[in-house]
Amino acid sequence: MTVQPISRADAEALLYREAELLDEGDWDGWLAMYTADALFWMPAWRDEETPTADPDRELSLIYYSGRAGLEDRVYRARSGQSVASRPRPRCLHCISNVRVISAGAAEAEVASAFVVHLHDVRAARTHQFFGRYRHTLRLEDGGWRIAAKKILLLNDTIPTVVDFYSI
Amino acid sequence: MTVDLAALIDDRPDEGVFRVDRAIFTDPEVFALEMRHVFEGGWVFLGLESQAPGPHDFFTTAAGRVPVLVSRDGDGRLRAFVNSCPHKGAQLAQIQSGNARLHVCPYHSWTFDSAGSNRGIKWQRAGCYSEAFTGASHDLAPLPRFEGYRGFLFGSLNPDVPALAEHLGEAARFLDLVVGQPEEGIELVPGAVTFTYDANWKLQLENCSDAYHFTSAHPSYIRVLERRQQAGGPAAVRSIWEQSQAWSEESEGVQGGSYSFANGHVLNWGRIGISETHPLFEQAGALGARHGEAARDWIFNMRNLTIFPNLQVAENASSQLRIIQPLAPGRTLMRTWCLAPRGESAEARRLRIRQYEDFFNPSGMATPDDTVAYESCQRGFAGRVDPWLQGYARGAMASQEGGNALSAAIGAGAERSVLADSQLCDETLYHSYYRAWLQRMAPAMARGA
């Protein structure tokens, strides 16, 4: 059996699945979509128009090299020891503008746009985070996994909290 | 004025009483007076010299509600102006920072040089202006007071304030520790992070100085550090908190304490030791040789410094510079940066940045547990059955007049000091905030009387 390069429909299905797992709080399922060495990166902004580009010399909002960093975040959010994490805000990821940038036999690059609608139940407060995703997908054990996710958050004046489940 | 400002703070040191009325955090009239008298009536922090390093470089900031333009003129002299065109009031500089020999107002093209002098009024000759207009100054309004201390820039919209050195007083010795780490000085790591929270600005003021909340508000962060220690691995970002006894219940002896300085500045600190988890570890020897062991040990301690009312430098878990900008009684804007010594190694810088993101970002694992707690307080302040808050009492019997041997070792005095074990968690240092607050509010009270 030869593996076909990923189609846009398959890429969309993967992004929608990730969105659903985050929105439903199935964070184990979400982590399982990532490779062990996955990069998870949300840059900060150097100035009004330029996001930071070098995570070793410039600040990021979130930067983890390896899924263990995401596992820490999930652990914290579930620990019952973080007042910011409970009650869990209600989030809805809407993903659009999906394009397959490159599609090789074992690796693919997918660009998309996102809006996350968030309702903070405790504060009765609703807002949105929006921006662009760039997913690097890698074929591992016969399935596509997320090897890198870069999140460009466009509205970066953060209303109190932003976490992995709301971007 | 209907609110009795002095009645909001119950300060009776001889009776061991210090209480604050919840209304100080919620009353719109109090907030309006704070903006006018605390933020626009005295010294406030504006930014760092390094934000405008070369001729004609500029950055924008704020003094209370007033937009401010800090510009380095062609001769290299820094100046601060109200960032507002004298013509119709539009903000002149539109961006956070840049370089401009000339600032052209986007509304009617009045033009100013980097020293604030008016260099052009569009179609002036055709304007049929009166002599009175032509004879008047059209330059940018300079801030009435503008001074720097070792790269930290402060301004005052009120001309009638003491010199900056007097305002900073002994707290300057602890700014020295921030600046004095490297030979090359300090810089802001590129990438500013801005966040808001729906609560009063003084909650941030207090939280920075609050040793009591650490194990209560941040156990999830502490547990994550423990997980990383167990798992190990080169990718795991380490933290000075891993090895610190400063908050451990098992620790004994002096683990930290606080200093209260004149004019509302405070420092709380915890003993850390020269830890390999600190980005400065590579420089420990050089720092000792240059500054002496006492100063070096202080540099490695965790130190949270507040320069009243709007500057905080937090050196714990990494290093952060914060500007507190009140927006409303129940809303605050925080402008934050990672502060770093120039010339540190790439590896140390990387560690500092990773530690910072974990702890200080609103997208990290500690700050959200603070800001959400502030919002919880703000909602709780509605409860006025007993208006008096009891969070200013710890340490009352430990607070001593003056500094102590540890501050003396770096040539610093203080108005009051506390030496603490891991569980004392002084709250008397907040008294300085509220006494300075009352001092700044004095003109409002005089008018109300």
In short:
The complex is a heterodimer of chains A (167) and B (449). Chain A is α+β, with helices and mostly antiparallel strands and 167 residues long.
Structural account:
The complex is a heterodimer of chains A (167) and B (449). Chain A has 167 residues and is of the alpha+beta class. Chain A has a single domain, classed as Nuclear Transport Factor 2, Chain: A. Chain A is 21% helix and 44% strand. Chain A is built from 3 helices and 7 strands, in the order ααββαβββββ. Chain A has helices at 8-24, 27-32, 67-78, and strands at residues 34-43, 60-65, 90-103, 107-120, 125-140, 143-153, 157-159. Chain A has a 6-stranded mixed sheet. In chain A, strand 3 and strand 4 (107-120) form a beta hairpin. The N and C termini of chain A lie far apart (37 Å). Chain B is α+β, with helices and mostly antiparallel strands. Chain B folds into 2 domains: 44-149, 3-layer Sandwich (Rieske Iron-sulfur Protein); 165-448, Naphthalene 1,2-dioxygenase Alpha Subunit, Chain A, domain 1 (Alpha-Beta Complex). Chain B contains 13 helices and 23 strands. Chain B has helices spanning 28-39, 131-134, 164-168, 172-179, 201-207, 214-217, 219-231, 284-291, 293-300, 346-359, 367-380, 405-408, 429-448, and strands spanning 9-12, 17-21, 44-48, 57-63, 66-72, 78-82, 97-99, 102-104, 111-113, 118-120, 145-149, 152-156, 186-188, 193-197, 256-260, 266-270, 302-307, 311-315, 319-328, 331-341, 388-389, 400-401, 416-420. In chain B, the strands form 5 sheets. In chain B, strands 13, 14, 15, 16, 17, 18, 19, 20, 22 and 23 form a 10-stranded antiparallel sheet that branches. In chain B, strands 6-5-4-7 form a 4-stranded antiparallel sheet, with no helix packed on it. Chain B is globular, with a radius of gyration of 23 Å. The chains are: A alpha+beta (167), B alpha+beta (449). Chains A and B meet through strand 2, helix 3 and strand 7 of A and strand 14, helix 7, strand 20, helix 10 and helix 11 of B. Strand 7 (157-159) of chain A pairs parallel with strand 14 of chain B. Chain A: Keywords: Dioxygenase, Oxidoreductase. Chain A: GO terms for molecular function: dioxygenase activity. Chain A: This is Aromatic-ring-hydroxylating dioxygenase subunit beta. Chain A: Belongs to the bacterial ring-hydroxylating dioxygenase beta subunit family. Chain B: Pfam families: Rieske, Ring_hydroxyl_A. Chain B: Belongs to the bacterial ring-hydroxylating dioxygenase alpha subunit family.
